[in-house]
Amino acid sequence: MGQVVVISTGGTIASRWQGSGFAADARGGDVLATAAVPEGVRVRVVDLMSVNSARLTTRDQLALLRTVHEVLADPGVDGIVVTHGTDTLEESAFLLDLHHDDPRPVVLTGAQLPLEAVDGDGPRNLHDALLAAGSPELRGYGVLVAFDGRIHAARGTIKVQTLAADAFADPSGSPVADVEDGRVLVRRRPERPAPLPLPADAGALPRVDVVTHHCDADPLLLNAAVGAGAQGIVLVATGAGNATPEVVDAVAAAVSRGVLVALTTRVPAGAVAEIYTQGGAVDLAAAGAVLTGTLRAGQARIAVLAAALTAPGADGTDGTDETDRRTRVLRDIVGAHAVSVPAAA
C-alpha cells in the first residue's frame, strides 16, 4: 500500500439535496471524509469537476484522461481512484482504459445513494476502490470499476441497475475480483488491446452519434446524423446485429463518405455476429460497419470516438488515408472480442 490519488468529478456520491432533487456539489475531500481509508493508504485529492455525469462532454472526459496521465507521471503514486457519476461511468472508464499504458491501477467508483444518505453505498464503494487502487495484485489489470463489493474490468462493464446497489456488471463476462474482509480476491485477468496514445489537443471534436433500430425503423435518423456532420455512428441493431436492407444502403453511403460506422445490439448480453443477410450483420459488415463484439452502445461510441481522435499519419507514407487508418484503429480496439460465425455447410 502507498499513495492513492482520488480524482473527484461529482456524481451521486458527491450529491446533496438542492430543493427539488439531488445534484453534485461536494468537493472530493467531503466525499473522502465519508469513507474508511484502508490501512497503509495515504490519500491525496484532486478536485477536477463536480457535475452529474449525464452532463459530461467529450472535453470533460479528455480532461479526465489527461489528468490521470499527469497524476501517474509522479512515480510516488501507487494508484488512482476516480469518483464519478454512474450514468456515464462506463464510458469514461472505457476511454481511460483504451489509453492506459501504465501498470498502476485506475479504479472508478460512485454511488447509487447521495452523499448524506443514511446507510449510503458511497463509503463502502470508495473504501473498496482505494483498496483496489493500492493493491499490487491488480497491477497491469488496466482501468477497473469498483462497486458493491466487486471489481470489474472497464471493457464490457455497464450500468445494469437504475437504483439498486449492484449497479454494474459485464453481462457477457465476470468480475475481475471481489472485495471480502478487507482483501482483494482476484478471479481473472482481463484481456486488453495495446494502449492508444493520448489524443492530440484539438479544437473541434468529432461528433459521434448513436442510432437504434426497431420495428418500422428507417434510415432517416442515420442519414440525419451524417447530414449533421457525424464522423462516427453507432448502429444499435436488433438480435445479433440485424437491421434492414434500407439501413444497409444508408450504412454503405455513410462509409463511402468517410464516416466510421460501428455495429452493436440492443440485447443485454452476447456478441454481435455475422449470421443473417437481407439487412442482417452479414450485409452490414459488407457495407463497411465494424462489429463491436460485446461492447454495448455507450462503450461502442467511445471506441468510435477514440478511433476518430487518432491523428492521421504525419506524412501518409503508410499507404492509407485517414479514414482507413481510423477504421483500422477501431478494428484493433474491438480486436479478438469480435465474433465471426462460420458459414453453414
TrEMBL record:
Keywords annotated in UniProt: Hydrolase
Source species, domain of life: Bacteria
Pfam families per record: Asparaginase, Asparaginase_C
Similarity section: Belongs to the asparaginase 1 family.
Amino-acid positions noted as binding substrate in the UniProt annotation, renumbered to this chain: S53, T86, D87
EC number: 3.5.1.1
GO biological process: asparagine metabolic process
Catalytic activity: L-asparagine + H2O = L-aspartate + NH4(+)
Location of the active site: T12, T86
Organism ancestry: Bacteria, Bacillati, Actinomycetota, Actinomycetes, Kitasatosporales
Protein name, as recorded: asparaginase
Keyword Hydrolase: yes
Single GO MF descriptor: asparaginase activity
Limits of the L-asparaginase N-terminal domain: 3-190
Organism: Streptomyces albireticuli
Entries under SUPFAM superfamilies matching the protein: Glutaminase/Asparaginase
Residue ranges of the TM segments: none
Domain Asparaginase/glutaminase C-terminal positions: 207-306
